[in-house]
Amino acid sequence: MTTHRAHCLILPYPSQGHINPMLQFSKRLQSKGVKITIATTKSFLKTMQELTTSVSIEAISDGYDDGGRDQAGSFVAYITRFKEVGSDTLAQLIKKLANSGCPVNCIVYDPFLPWAVEVAKDFGLVSAAFFTQNCAVDNIYYHVHKGVLKLPPTQDDEEILIPGFSCPIESSDVPSFVISPEAARILDMLVNQFSNLDKVDWVLINSFYELEKEVIDWMSKIYPIKTIGPTIPSMYLDNRLPDDKEYGLSVFKPMTNECLNWLNHQLISSVVYVSFGSLAKVEVEQMEELAWGLKNSNKNFLWVVRSTEESKLPKNFLEELKLVSENKGLVVSWCPQLQVLEHKSTGCFLTHCGWNSTLEAISLGVPMLTMPQWTDQPTNAKLVKDVWEMGVRAKQDEKGIVRREVIEECIKLVMEEEKGKMIKENAQKWKELARKAVDEGGSSDKNIEEFVSKLVTISS
Ligand code: UDX
């Protein structure tokens, strides 16, 4: 028997930073009665074994079933083949689900995979693009797409005015792919997100209205924008999803007890938590400056150094400096970040400003010290410092390295000085607004309600 229940097929780009926000969004849709199927690649599915979720997951192919992105060699080669093979296998999946008793009526896709819109059209389904990054970053790529924003600017410190952006920015604030000539093909792909966006029914953004009012209002005149974030588990925000388990996917293993036990023995708001996310490769020289900056700040710190980065740490760093015996520092290869950010001992987040990390810090009210590395991170860092005023940005020298004195000074600024008080107050304000956005009747909750009610109308 066929039921007339709304059924969304969710198509994330297969990486942790993209699938997690879409998974959290899926849980919210599901709590409002929508059936969810997540489609991901065979190779990525293998890394998802520990995912604890009630949503169903189906495999499609990216053409690299054994090794995925790594097997492809380059990102561009991967994306190209994914389009060819992915379109067919996604279509096969839709046909299979059509016979399951509850056919798909909407595709929510990651615009890194814009071909999904054509598949949706072929089957007469509605479509929604889900941008995992914030609206300000999307707006910059939109302006590159339109040819309005031409970079790099002639002078390094020239101010750039972007319609919809609440303040002028400099070339050091735009996403790295926009200004790096070597990244031209990646930029093409990012800009291509907008190539068929006029054909979609909704544009969902992983942010919340109060955080980016001006740019959201501006972009809403062009696209049917709906903000639906923050997409972190409900248990850290409104706590309305009763069976909301911990986070979604981690391709790394968290060392839950070690970190949390250590934090339990620290004073309130005394710890600097340091992490550069799942991808960034920090230069050896930068790693050394970071190590000394942390040591010299005299604050206790919890530092995530992924195992692939470990060899870059100064030799015997923790042991030689007696950081272990005095309990002043803990280095781990991965941690349960949300629990760490929520912990009362955490006073400052030294972050690369990946959008997930930034949104998590906003949602949990943790002041930030930003050290952006690449991609959207410089823009996020600009917003944290100058628009949301809940952090500082550590300045690089002419070699692109943030020196130890700068790191030490910035940590003290956030954790000790008058400016730090203002930052803490703002962090609390944003935390409250983030919770309100997803709570009943909040801006994101209303948008999700509206999205669901349209889906229900279509499916009945
Ligand atoms: C990538 C890009 O680098 C980033 O710029 C873009 O905005 C999203 O995609 P990544 O570098 O992994 O992401 O950073 P981020 O977006 O911050 O995501 C990292 C995720 O890993 C966060 O959800 C964080 O909670 C989690 N994490 C990180 C852990 O769970 N434990 C850790 O020890 C470190």
Automatic annotation (TrEMBL):
Signal peptide: none annotated. It comes from the Eukaryota. Its EC number is 2.4.1.-. Keywords: Glycosyltransferase, Transferase. InterPro entries: UDP_glucos_trans, UDP_glycos_trans_CS. GO terms for molecular function: quercetin 3-O-glucosyltransferase activity; quercetin 7-O-glucosyltransferase activity. It is an enzyme of class 2 (transferase). CDD domains: GT1_Gtf-like (cd03784). The keyword Glycosyltransferase applies. Belongs to the UDP-glycosyltransferase family. This is Glycosyltransferase. It comes from Lycium barbarum.
